[in-house]
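Friendly challenge for the regulars: who can give me the structure tokens for this chain first? No prize, just bragging rights.
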Amino acid sequence: MYNQFSQVLLGYTGSANTVRMFENDLKLDQTGSMRNVMIVSLSRLLTKDQIKKGTFTLQLGTGPWGNRHSETVTLQDSDADATGDGTTNTIGGDYGVLKATAGLATGSAHGTAHGIIFYQAGIAIISSSVFDLTNSSGYGQFASGAASAFTTSLGPALGCSASLATGSISSSADALRERITNLTFNNSTEINSTIYFCRLPVNKFNYSANPTYLSASKLRVKNRADELPVAYATTVGLYNARNELLAVAKLSEPLKKTPQNELTIRVRLDY
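First reply, four minutes later:
Bragging rights claimed.
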């Protein structure tokens, strides 16, 4: 699974053409590699086109299994912003570093990187190191013993790294879900727009295509034969070079059109 996500998001490197390791920095120089990771893949329905840079926050419970939310750590892409600063581009899109910004008792650990977030793919890579931090009691969260285990489901009590190495995938996944306290981000959708200006000259579009416009071969809107025809524009159709209808735009209110006036209608096509 590690290799699968790595080759899709980072690709291959080196003369041996091996998959890259996930790194807790933006250098892609194979230093600071994260070898034991948990992968959170978010639904496209939630992320839309991409996660907005600088808005991702993940709060995790890092306490012992029996009281796993007694200690928490918050990971944020605090160095990234919407302009692209604080991110690196790969074949899987842009990614930013997730740093511990809150919930730690030891100030020296604040700002330490414990994962990365791929914005377009909507995938967070969380290092197991986030569960080896020092808590307010001054001990390693999962150093040893059942009381400090990452997971106790579907098997013996295991620390985080041991769970990834020897535990079942389902028990590790369940343990991570149990420890997610809060997950927030803003999504972003890219909308492309094209503007068309449709001109209705004085000598065209003065008659309606509505069949009820005529009654006994006479225009309903005319009381005398010498009156000018009157029509109301309600819909604009956009056609291609083969005269095939591609899009239809509705006006907010009908526009009166006679042989004495000319109209220009502005149509915006979003896609």
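The chain is about 10% helix and 35% strand. The helical segments are 2-9, 44-47, 160-166, 169-179. Your move, everyone else.
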